[in-house]
Amino acid sequence: MAATTTAAEQVGQRRFHSRTGNTLVPYLFIGPHLIFFLVFVAYPFFYGLFTSFFRFDFLRPEAREFVLFDNYVKLFTPGSIQFPVFWNALGNTLEFVLYSVPPLVIIPLLLAVLLNTSVPGRNFFRGLYFAPWVLSAAVVGLLGFWIFQSQGGLVNYYLAQLGIPQPRWLSTMPWAWVSIVLITIWWTVGFNMIILLAALQDIPRHLYESASIDGATNWRQFISITLPILRPVLVFVIIITIIASFNLFAQPFFMTGGGPAQATGGGSTEPVMLRIYREGFERNQLGMAAAMSFIVATIMILFSYTNFRLFRTRE
Q: Rounded CA gap, 69 and 54, in Å?
């Protein structure tokens, strides 16, 4: 009886430890990511929300004033100082999204289609187009400044050699937007190209072979086979490109400084991220900057939710 009881207890302990171990294993795997999430995402999020309710000053904690929703109210009050510059910056950001997203979808798609064929040297060109993506935003911004600056810039140098008038790229409109969009396309076109190229290589070849036998031209194959199959990937590329364009900061910061200046306040190429940076770190209005950030975050969350709903409905 004693031996039987001991064996039963041992079996029960093994089952308990097995159940406990199986329960703890998933938490051990997600634990490191959870710690990083709490430290670098959750804490900054709630601390930023807390900051947005104050007239916040890091250097003078005793001077912090609790204003509740006053920072948010000022951003929606036409007579306030922050109203014109914030909404101007938000409008500039939307303008950049309209300028940059179509070429950042169409050009990578065309490049992916061209490089999906057996063209000699296709691997070299794949690497060549993708290479700028590895550069940091600061490097790209400085390169754009030296390429497009009016005095001594690379573009104006060659235009002068050809006898063509040289625009003031970084200080006049619309050339300032043209320079920012061009350098952005050069920087990020390779990333979207790689995503679309990977999707193209997953399309079964027998579909094109059957279409060729039926007499379909290359254009008809592209319209009837390639685009319908690529539709989910294209939606994904469009979404991430819009989000990336909405986070525009480094290019105008280094190239134009947000200018040229406007009489109503703000700059003609100042994006909303640059306005938040200046509000918080140049004007030391951290509470107002946090409120701006949460308004922008809300807009992006609503946009992402809408797109994912549409994407799920389409599927």
A: 9
Contact 183, 135 (CB under 8 A): no
pTM: 0.84
Over residues 16-43, the mean pLDDT reads 79
Assigned domain for 61 exists = no
What is the domain extent for residue 238? 81-284
If you count them, how many residues does the chain have? 315
C-alpha 166/C-alpha 156 separation (Å) is 5
CATH number at residue 169: 1.10.3720.10
**Residue 229: how many CB atoms within 10 A of its CB?**
16
pLDDT recorded at residue 52: 92
Any residues with CB less than 8 A from the CB of 47 and at least 6 apart, and which? none
- For residues 239-251, give the mean pLDDT: 92
What stretch of H or E contains 54?
strand 54-55
Phi first, then psi: what are they for 55, rounded to 5°?
-85, 90
